[in-house]
């Protein structure tokens, strides 16, 4: 919604550098407006799965050069539970039921923990997606720390205006007018259904805290900052 920013004309997540790379760069660029429409504007797209795809960073730098990357990290335990709720809820949607996770949260996590390869044959990957240190180290092979803005998901909830201002500063564009940024705080998007957290869920989340602790410590050491994920 920033006047200096312009995205794909048809969809937000293009998945080019992870799923559709074989279609070629011309296919990718075809999703963006013509250059005459993007004069003095920054083009962007947002595909969250790029962060964990091993070949994505090398492909990005080969095709686009030293672009700026923005990453928002969520508490990995909350991220895993949120992802499970989404996949589990698909069981009640006839169009999505085939992709649903019918297991309880506890079953899903413990089965993945016991799997030698973290159940790579499934598409859920609750554990792997929260091991951010592995993903960021892969990107730092190709991009410097100055190229990647890493933000805390909780800051987006607690202080959206400051969160947006950090992005504008990183991109070297003017901040949103105050009245516009204030209006963003009045609307909620993609709000999932309420969910009763069971005792079993809480026990599983405690196990996950222990599981992620060493990965989080390595991440905090790398970034030189801590997130309040305890």
Give the secondary structure arrangement, pairings included.
Layout lengths: L4 E2 L18 H5 L12 E2 L12 H9 L4 E5 L2 H14 L15 H10 L17 H8 L8 E5 H6 L1 H12 L6 H7 L14 H25 L7
Explained architecture:
The protein has 230 residues and is mainly alpha-helical. Helix content is 42%, strand content 6%. It has 9 helices and 4 strands; from the N terminus they run E-H-E-H-E-H-H-H-E-H-H-H-H. It has a two-stranded parallel ribbon with strand order 1-2. It has a two-stranded parallel sheet with strand order 3-4. The radius of gyration is 19 Å and the shape is globular. The two termini are 34 Å apart.
> Nearest-angstrom radius of gyration?
19 Å
What's the helical proportion of residues?
A: 40-55%
Structural class comes to mainly alpha
| Major pleated sheet | 2 strands, parallel
- How many DSSP helices? 9
> Biggest sheet, strands in spatial order?
1-2
Spans of at least 5 consecutive residues with low confidence: none
Average pLDDT metric? 91
Would you list the SSEs in sequence order as H and E?
EHEHEHHHEHHHH
Strand content: 5-15%
Calculate the terminal CA-CA distance, rounded to whole Å. Answer: 34 Å
- Globally, the shape reads globular
